[in-house]
Amino acid sequence: MSAQPRLWITRKLSDNTEARAERDYDVVLNPEDQVFTPDEIVERSADFDAILPCHSELFGAQMVPQLSQRIKIIANHSVGVDHCDLAALGARGIVVTNTPDVLSDATAEIAMLLLLGAARRAAEGDRMVRNGDWAFWSPSFMVGTKVTGKRIGIVGMGRVGRVMARRARGFDMEVHYYNRTRLAADLEDGAIYHDTLEGLLRVAEFVSLHCPATPETTGMMNAERFALMPDGAVLVNTARGALVVEDDLVAAIVSGKLAAAGIDCFVSEPGGNPAFAPYPNIFMLPHIGSATRETRDAMGFRALDNLDAYFAGREPKDRVG
Ligand code: DGY
Question: Is the pTM for the entire model greater than 0.90?
Answer without folding.
Answer: yes
